[in-house]
Specification:
Length: about 120
């Protein structure tokens, strides 16, 4: 389950193993260690290798972040996330600057099954 900033608020055992088996299962319970799917997608090599069509997933995530910023322009944590991704990810910068991005409420993505989830 994700919050509006794509913070992981909870995950089940299978979702954890598939998306972030390299992280502690209890991390979502601690706000200081809570994983963020946008951060993981752009900055975590494990997550980048997970998606067969990473660019499509990244475009959808950026679209959803744009909607969140439009709905919550005064959210300092959201601004901090956008700033961090802008500073650390050239791929994010390119997609953020492309205003044609579209949101993704639900879509199918082909994933490469990590060995930890097998």
């Amino acid at each position: 389950m994700l919050g509006r900033r794509t913070d992981v608020l909870a995950w089940n055992t299978l979702g954890h193993a598939l998306l972030a088996g390299h992280l502690d299962f209890r991390d979502p319970d601690d706000p200081a260690r809570r994983p963020n799917m946008s951060r993981m997608l752009f900055l975590d090599p494990h997550c980048q290798e997970l998606y067969a069509d990473w660019k499509r997933k990244a475009r959808a995530v950026v679209g959803n972040l744009r909607i969140a910023v439009g709905r919550h322009p005064e959210d300092p944590l959201l601004a901090e996330l956008i700033g961090e991704l802008t500073m650390k990810s050239p791929q994010f910068v390119a997609l953020w600057g492309d205003h044609r991005v579209a949101p993704c409420d639900a879509a199918d993505y082909e994933l490469h099954l990590p060995s930890s989830a097998r």
